[in-house]
Structures are given as structure tokens and as C-alpha cells.
Write a structure and sequence with these properties.
Blueprint: E1 29-37, E2 43-51, E3 60-71, H1 78-84, E4 86-87, E5 91-95, H2 99-112, E6 123-127, H3 142-150, E7 169-170, E8 173-174, E9 176-185, E10 190-200, H4 214-217, E11 234-242, H5 248-265, E12 273-287, H6 305-325, E13 329-330, E14 336-337, H7 342-352
Parallel strand pairs: 5-6, 11-12
Antiparallel strand pairs: 1-2, 2-5, 3-4, 3-12, 7-8, 9-10, 10-11, 13-14
Length: 355
């Protein structure tokens, strides 16, 4: 797995965390399961789990909110997050046709853990992998979801053709899962913002790296497209985590800023795209079943600018890590999504980078 910085390309002004991943937010883990098969169906799919609070999120809720840049997609559990401002589940990401499978498994997982709530509304999001995978085969089973939750890492995050990102295409190159983080040093505290994306969107001619038109500089003769005609539809799911003490409305403000990071890379929020962003904060604790008032902390509004920048930069780099981590993959109906060529990317950056 190759990452953007391993190519000698560093973007943004803020420093990344230790792993340059969403797992740099303490207690946040990522688990993934990948399913690749050629018989009886051509399958290139999987599931990715973002697990807050080391899976104690079911009884120790986190402040959360969301933003839909373009709503041609699905993310379950959103009405209650909108109403309550709280996240009370792990977050699943998979393909469009198997959201229900992952959502139901998470409900069973919560029940098996003995959580006291009488019902559960877990968050599961999707992007469409039907170009490389026979999505109508419904190949994922509960076993893959359980495997993802059994393989949660609180350190480095696998990227590219893995988990829910296995069959995804980004800016007409192979895409998938990517992650990044930023550390924000405030006067008396240091906070971390981490981002994970499932990138499956975009036209090649829009792809940019710090303003360099990489997509236009890489011709179709050099790197063929995965389809015969130019396309730009698709989707991206963006999950933002922070340990800064934020309330729900402040989480929504961070979620909105992911749009800027997406736009820097070349996302336009076109009609066919499901660009849905979720932000949660572990900086406060909302204990399930607690009776009576309890103390919360929050940053004043004029202290959020650093977190805004961190969200933007981590989103931008997470998408590029998805592109750099991905490998060329052939799949359903003999389609092939080609990886972005690392050597050419590095040389184009050296030749055209700003400054």
C-alpha cells in the first residue's frame, strides 16, 4: 500500500497525527473485510467499519451531525442523529445493495453486547460498486460483517482496494478507502481531526492536486478509463472524527467543511452523486440511561477555524490516499479500473507544483 506522502508529496499546512489516519483520534478504530470472487459471481466488494470509543459507543454516546452535499445516496440512522445530535453506534460503509445486511448485523451486535436500549438505529452508508462487481449477487454475508468487526485496528488503516472500497472507482482511476488526520495546536490544548473516505466519484478532467490538473495531464492513452464513455457520477462517504469537545451544531459545521476538501480534489456534487458526510466528537460523554443533568464542554465559535482547516486538509489527503493506495483491478463484465501511476504522479507534481 502506497500513500501520498510516500511519493514525496505533502499537502496542507497542519501536521498529521502519528498514523495520518482517523485512528489518530483516541479510541477510534477501523475494521475491514474484503470479498473477491470469480465464481459463481464476479464479486469485488466488502465492508468497512469505523468504531468509536473502542465499541463502547452503544452506551457512551458522542455528539454528532451530518451534511449532505449531494443526496443521491444512503446513510441510515440520520433522522435520529438530526433529532438528538448524538451518535450511538459503530459506522458501517459498504455497497449500495447491502446496507440492510450491515445495518441488521449491527443491531444484532448491539443486542449481543447487552446494551440497555430497547431499540437501535445504527449508521450504515454506501457507494455503488456495480461497475466492477455484480452488485445484484448480494454476495456479502453476516460472516464478512463479523470479520470486519473482529479485525478492528487502532493504528494504521488499510487503504485502496479494501473493505467497502474494494470495487470503487474515483475520478476514473481505481479508488476506495482512504484516511488522513491533522493535529491542531490551540493555546492550552492539542486536538486531532481524523477523516476516512470511501471514494467512488468524479470525472478525470476534474482531478487536481493542490491546483495541479493531474487528471488532464494523464491522458486516456496513458491510463485507459474503466468505461467506454466519459462519466462523472458516483459517490463519496466521508466520516470525520475529532477529540475536540464539540456539540452537535459544531459537528455539523465541521461536516460542511469536508465539501471544501472534496472540491479541492475535484468533486462537484453532481446530480448522480451521493456525497454524504458524518462528523462525531468524542470530547464529551453522553451516557445512555443517565438521569439528571451532567457537565459538557464546548469550544467557543471563534476557536473552530483550526478544526475547519484540519477537516479540509484531512479530507483532501484521505481522497488522495485512497487513489494512491488502490491497485489496478479487473472485475465484472471484463471492466478494469487502473490505478493512478505513482511514478507519473510524482513527476507531474515535481514539474507543476505551486511555488
Amino acid at each position: 500500500m502506497t500513500r501520498l506522502r510516500e511519493l514525496g508529496i505533502e499537502i496542507g499546512r497542519l501536521p498529521p497525527g502519528e498514523h495520518n489516519a482517523i485512528t489518530d483520534v483516541a479510541g477510534v478504530g477501523v475494521g475491514q473485510a474484503t470479498l473477491i470472487a470469480d465464481e459463481p459471481h464476479v464479486v469485488r466488494t466488502g465492508v468497512t467499519m469505523v468504531v468509536p470509543r473502542r465499541d463502547e459507543i452503544w452506551t457512551d454516546y458522542a455528539a454528532a451531525s451530518w451534511f449532505s452535499f449531494s443526496g443521491n445516496g444512503e446513510m441510515t440512522g440520520i433522522p435520529w442523529i438530526e433529532e438528538s445530535g448524538l451518535l450511538g453506534s459503530a459506522i458501517g460503509i459498504t455497497n449500495t445493495h447491502q446496507v440492510g445486511l450491515v445495518r441488521d448485523w449491527l443491531v444484532r451486535h448491539a443486542v449481543a453486547k447487552g446494551t440497555p436500549d430497547p431499540f437501535h438505529l445504527p449508521v450504515v452508508a454506501e457507494t455503488f460498486d456495480g461497475w466492477l462487481s455484480d452488485i445484484d449477487a448480494f454476495a456479502l454475508t453476516a460472516a464478512e460483517v463479523e470479520r470486519a468487526m473482529s479485525n478492528v485496528s487502532y493504528a494504521a488503516v488499510e487503504e485502496g482496494n479494501v473493505g467497502g472500497g474494494t470495487g470503487m472507482i474515483c475520478h476514473e482511476f481505481k479508488g476506495g478507502i482512504g484516511s488522513s488526520s491533522r493535529v491542531v495546536d490551540m493555546a492550552m490544548h492539542t486536538y486531532t481531526v481524523g477523516v476516512l473516505v470511501q471514494a467512488n466519484y468524479g470525472a478525470r478532467h476534474d482531478l487536481r492536486l493542490e491546483g495541479v490538473p493531474i487528471g488532464r495531464l494523464l491522458s486516456y492513452e496513458e491510463v485507459p478509463a474503466p468505461w467506454p464513455e466519459e462519466r462523472s457520477d458516483g459517490s463519496i462517504i466521508i466520516v470525520i472524527a475529532t477529540d475536540a469537545p464539540l456539540l452537535s451544531d459544531q459537528c455539523r459545521r465541521l461536516a460542511k467543511r469536508a465539501t471544501v476538501g472534496l472540491g479541492r480534489v475535484g468533486g462537484t456534487g453532481h446530480n448522480g452523486s451521493g456525497d454524504i458526510f458524518l462528523c462525531f466528537s468524542t470530547g464529551n460523554h453522553f451516557p445512555a440511561g443517565h438521569r439528571g443533568p451532567f457537565q459538557l464542554h464546548a469550544l467557543p465559535p471563534d476557536h473552530l477555524d483550526g478544526l475547519f482547516r484540519a477537516t479540509i486538509e484531512a479530507t483532501e489527503e484521505a481522497i488522495w490516499n485512497a487513489l494512491c493506495g488502490a491497485e489496478t483491478l479487473s472485475g465484472w463484465r471484463e471492466r478494469t479500473a487502473h490505478a493512478i501511476p505513482h511514478g507519473r504522479l510524482a513527476s507531474l507534481w515535481d514539474e507543476h507544483r505551486p511555488g
